Amino acid sequence: MCIRTLTATVALVAIVSGAAAPAAQPRSGTARDRLVGTWQLVTYQILDPDGGPSRPGAYDVGRITYDPSGHMSAQLMHSSNKAAQPPATDADRAAAYRRYLGYFGPFTVDEARGIVTHHVAGSSNPAWVGSNQVRHFAFSPDGNGLTLSLKNGERVTQSLYWERVK
Residue 32 and residue 107: Cα distance in Å, rounded? Predict the structure, then answer.
């Protein structure tokens, strides 16, 4: 086999096996399909009730993952939640707890209403265990951005913008 044929064969095998490039993320299909993947928190904003300027939310670092089997997990923290050693006092543990939120469970999507519901099976916030955390979603035009919003009635109270992890 000549070098040119061998090179072409190796390239074809790489393309067929998916080794040549990462798989494209869904830009179309159902909202559930488009959610699947890992997303990194870019911004978290609390919106003023009177329409005034927003302020940053409690967390500025985070990941949320939706898997194809219908489960999700979210990890959010404030970047100041760092220490050289584990918290030694109840006050230190309480401060660390206030700067971190993690939860997981199955999720369902109501595409017509633009809602994803996180059915919380476990959480660092015990009050969330067994709850349904409703998030309104919107994708950026390129499919690599995701906004999850919390609403009080029709008013958006919090907005988290995520970018797909490549």
Answer: 9
